[in-house]
Amino acid sequence: MRLTLLLWLGIAMPLAAQARSDTVRLSLEEAVARALQVGEEVRMARAGVSDASGQVREATAAALPEVRGSVVYTRQFASIFQDIGAGDSTFGPIFQNSPFGAANAWTLEVTARQTLFAAGKVSAGLRAAKAYRRAAEEQLSETQADVVFRVRRAYLDALYAARLVDIAEAGATQAQAHEAEVRRFQLAGIRAEYDLLRAQVDAANQAPVVVAAHNGLDLALLAVKRLVNLPASAPLVLTTTLGGPDATLPVLTADSLSGPDRASVRAAEATVQVWEQAVRAARADRWPSLSVGATLSHQSFPQEITPFNAQFRRNWSADLRLSVPLFLGFRTVGAEERAQASLDRARAERDQLRELAALEVERAVAEVQRAEALLAAQRLTVRQAARAYHLANVRYANGMATQLEVSDARLLAQQADVNEAQSLRDYLVGLADLERALGRPVALERRPLDEILGPLSARGQDQ
């Protein structure tokens, strides 16, 4: 038996240590940083920025010289010139070493072309690409702000769910303690069997509440794991508390609420600039374009396939090309109309986003104020409900109250705790939503809860 026990401990202890080491402990700030680093939404937004940078390089290439090199081998199996000079020692070798009668031909060629004038189309394309990159970068910032808000809300939801578990388990403990007290009274003959039955039913009814609270916590933790890109089976411990350290709460300072600076509005403004340049580029197709080019080639017509011992002849030429669009079937007019329509739509979307950003700020401020006032009222209710439950227990122990009054007081106290946790969660989520609506971090300071909630909570504390 001793040997079996030692073997069991030797296996169980490393497994327990490994389970503890696999547990992920995350604070709210760590969860946000992890989501910004490995989250799928941010990764896709970063890919959009890389794509926009590639478009800028492509647009820049249109303003630079284009140089191409090529090596061409041609095998001629039959030619109308192959019989010319046959048997003639004078003209035969000439045709055999020329493009007309040679069986093998090698061409080494380098071409270069530079656009001299395109009516501003190249510069418009480059400015449009740079504006598109700015829009992608602002969209990345907006995505990051949205991810931060969703992680904070999910984290606070998980903390709220954990608080519900504590409240449910505390309610179950209170119900069981009251059941034991009623059992002692009933054995002593000073309480009826009906009171014991009600206490037993009341304690048993707390079990589904505890199970539901644990299930809600599991679902809330799964939401956090999804946002921070953790496996669903990974143990997760949240280290940040719902009420904050030392019973303090973050509050807005006097200079917190200024005008919104949303990245989505800046991205819409950059999109407007993209389509403004697109209109200019479409109009540039009405004008001629001028370019210059040069070609340097070396040709050889060896008797064998390989050109290593062949003699190459050089050909060098240059050209100046003027391209005039005489008639393109109204394609230029259609492209210009489409670009102008896209520009009008982008301007309308920008104006709409500005209005929505201002409205979101007003809504977020009102929500923070509502949650703060409700939190003050709920803290007073919690104190009153706890006092009422204590008095109900005292009255019942002295035979002045019924079992029903005790159960009602306990349920009211439990509901008051739930409402306070809900109000605190709403207040903290409202602050996170306000920061997202403003598009920038807001100035906050931590102050004691009773100082924040004002004289209403102070009166509840005096009671």
Overview of this structure, please?
By secondary structure, the protein is α+β, with helices and mostly antiparallel strands. It folds into two domains: 307 residues, Up-down Bundle (Outer membrane efflux proteins (OEP)); 89 residues, Outer membrane efflux proteins (OEP) (Single Sheet). The chain is 64% helix and 14% strand. It contains twelve helices and eight strands. The strands form three sheets. The chain has a four-stranded antiparallel sheet, with no helix packed on it. A two-stranded parallel sheet has the order 1-4. Strands 5-8 form a two-stranded antiparallel sheet. Helix 3 runs antiparallel to helix 5. The C terminus is likely disordered.
Cross-sheet strand order for the largest sheet: 2-3-6-7
The topology string of helices and strands comes to HEHHEHEHHHEEHEEHHEHH
Relative helix content:
55-70%
Measured by DSSP, the beta-strand proportion falls in 5-15%
Within CATH, the superfamily of the largest domain carries the name: Outer membrane efflux proteins (OEP)
What class do helices, strands and sheet pairing give?
Answer: alpha+beta
Given the structure, what is the number of helices?
A: 12
> Which architecture of the largest domain per CATH?
Up-down Bundle
Low-confidence stretches: 11-20, 455-463
CATH fold field value of the largest domain: Outer membrane efflux proteins (OEP)
